Amino acid sequence: MKKLLLTILVTILLAPTLASADDFEGLSSLGSQTTTTTPSPISFYYGDNNPSTNITFKTNCKKLPSVSIAGLPAGAFTPSVSTNPRSLGSSVLFVTVSFGGALLEEGQFSISITLTDACNPNLTQTTLYNVKVSSTFDVTSNYVLPSGYTGLAYNAAINFQYKGIYTPSVSFTGLPAGMTLSKVVQNSPNTSGIIPVQSYSVILSGTPTQSGFFNPQLFITDPTTDNTDTYSDNLSLTIIQSSNAPTIQASTTPVTSSQPGNITDLAGTNISSNGTVYMITASGQKRPYTSAGAFLSYGFNSWADVVTASSADLALPTGNFIPPRDGKIICSNKGSDTGTCYLITNSEKAAFTSSAVFTGLGFSFSNSLSGDVSFLNSAPNINSVTQTHPEGVLLNKGGTIYLVGNNGLLGVPDVNTLTSWGYTSSDSVLANSADNALPQIGVMPAHTAGALNPFGN
Predict the structure, then answer these.
(1) What's the CA angle centered on 438, arms 437 and 439, to 5 degrees?
(2) Average pLDDT, stretch 41-59?
(3) What is the structure's pLDDT at 344?
(4) For 349-390, what is each residue's pLDDT tens digit?
(5) Two domains, one topology: 21-134 and 137-244
(6) Which fold has domain 388-457?
(7) 137-244, superfamily in CATH?
């Protein structure tokens, strides 16, 4: 939950009247003059339960003072006082005043807190405050918007929750040309707590005409009495030139199976049935590719090598989907994140938090493909140019090529081994300092039929 920073004007009034030294065990020497203290500023939030503040009270009485509060916003309050017992009986008593309720009104208020000494009710201290009760917003920080293409319609939603009594206003700066905030939709509130929590969807739409990496800024403002409750955050958005949008189609009709109908094809064979392409695995399964992009992400695959499935092939049990190859940039072509580009790592999809991180780690859209990633789990976002490259990325480390693994690097012994897995030198990115610190854990083996990666998983 993000809470807004507040500027609070505080005024105080301290006007004790003194009692005898017998009542206060020596207080006469402390209270022979009027004293003025400045309390810390108070800031609260709409819906806060049992808010409190700390006050300094001068007394030698060994009992807690009583408390009364006037001017509080709406809510059922039962004020109380507590303190560290060790401070009782000292010349300065540090007390915590609890309001004992929930703040159910938003805005600016003048309240007074009066403490009355337990040893002599004639000794009181009243402190006046100007207090502001503010709204709160819950928004995902550094939100990565789905990617889009120039000349193509764009639509995306940003969701946020709001705890307050007003209708917030929303605005953006830094959107690419052709895009705009189209509407703000109020969803059903969550009414399970003390106060309702409102849910909103901010809809961005349009047809972008400008490509590049953008960091638009989102502003959500709650129109309280001074109109200063504003949440802001920088977002990340990539608009790709339409001429670079991946378009992938199977270019050939599958050839007839090399095996009779009652014999399965060999492990590693790609077979086709009713428009779905499968790979025969060494464990005797047929595993489906989810898209043409996933199929082509494995550089050793070719449409020309896909064969029509035999009846024996189709009788094999169906295994899990084959995800796109680790280390590949795949732009989603299905679902709510259509157009968003991810790095595939450890069979999961990892988003980049900014264009600077994407390019700073050496990645380029020129090597990207499109495909279905809706079934993949999300890996942690990639948010720093100084982090190690994730698993599956091919590195150029001082002219030597390595593949990033889970615990270190696989060395590449020769070009033939590299190309047997379908890699080319253009797939590699430059290693950074963090990569250079990784140990070499082995040597890349040559590709074998049915294997999807050099790690054997």
Answers:
(1) 115
(2) 68
(3) 94
(4) 999 888 788 888 988 877 788 777 888 889 999 999 999 999
(5) yes
(6) TTHA1013/TTHA0281-like (3.30.2390)
(7) Immunoglobulins (2.60.40.10)
Nearest-angstrom CA–CA distance, 430 and 31: 73
User: What does the pLDDT look like over 67-83, one tens digit per residue?
Assistant: 888 877 766 567 777 76
Output the pLDDT for position 445: 92
- Identify the burial level of 181 via C-beta atoms within 10 angstroms of its C-beta, where 0-12 means exposed, 13-18 middle and 19 or more buried: middle
d(CA 297, CA 325) in angstroms, rounded, equals 6
CA angle 178, 235, 221 (to 5 degrees): 90
Per the DSSP assignment, residues forming a β-bridge with 57 are 93
Q: Which two tokens stand for residue 29?
A: 């020497």
Phi and psi at 278, nearest 5°, equal -120, 160
Task: Give me 351's structure tokens.
Answer: 């988003």
Question: H/E/C letters for each residue in the chain?
Answer: CECCCCCCCCCCCCCCCCCCHHHHCCHHHCCCCCCCCCCCCCEEECCCECCEEEEEEECCCCCCCEEEEECCCCCCCCCEEEECHHHCCCCEEEEEEECCCECCCCEEEEEEEEEECCCCCCCEEEEEEEEEEECEEEECCCCECCCEECCCCEEEEEEEEEECCCCCEEEEECCCCCEEEEEEEECCCECCCCCCEEEEEEEEEECCCCCEEECCEEEEEECCCCCCEEEEEECEEEEECHHHCCCCCCCCCCECCCCCCCCCCCCCCEEEECCEEEEECCCCCEEEECCHHHHHHCCCCCHHHCEECCHHHHHCCECCCECCCCCCEEEECCCCCCCCEEEEECCEEECECCHHHHHHCCCCHHHCEEECCCCCCECCCECCCCCCCCCCCEEEECCEEEEECCCCEEECCCHHHHHHCCCCHHHCEECCHHHHCCCEEEECCCCCCCCCCCCCC
Domain ranges across the chain: 21-134, 137-244, 388-457
CA pair distance 436, 444, nearest whole angstrom: 18
Name the residue type at position 297.
S
| CATH label, 21-134, candidates 2.60.40.10, 2.102.10.10, 1.10.3720.10, 2.140.10.10 | 2.60.40.10
Query: pLDDT digits over 166-198, tens only?
Result: 677 788 888 888 988 877 777 665 555 555 667
The torsion angles phi and psi of 354, rounded to 5 degrees, stand at: -160, 160
Two structure tokens written together for 188:
């059903």
